[in-house]
Design brief:
Length: 74
């Protein structure tokens, strides 16, 4: 079991020493850009889905008086 752990340790040390350390902050910038782009795409899709839901007359609705009851199509 120790041999497997040491092999994994050596792989991770190699990857960090020869890829991430020489790149500096470039991976951080890439992850930040991906995060911002993903957030923008997600918000655009959510906006589209909200508009579609507002335009559907037979969508699922929630009434606080129906607490504990299953959703009903109205």
């Amino acid at each position: 079991m120790d041999a497997l752990v040491y092999i994994l340790r050596d792989i991770f040390v190699f990857l960090f020493e020869y890829t991430l350390e020489p790149l500096g902050n470039i991976p951080n910038g890439i992850f930040l850009i991906l995060l911002v782009v993903g957030l923008f795409v997600w918000l655009k899709m959510q906006s589209k889905f909200n508009k579609e839901a507002d335009n559907q007359p037979h969508s699922l609705t929630y009434n606080s008086a129906d607490e504990g009851k299953p959703y009903q199509i109205k």
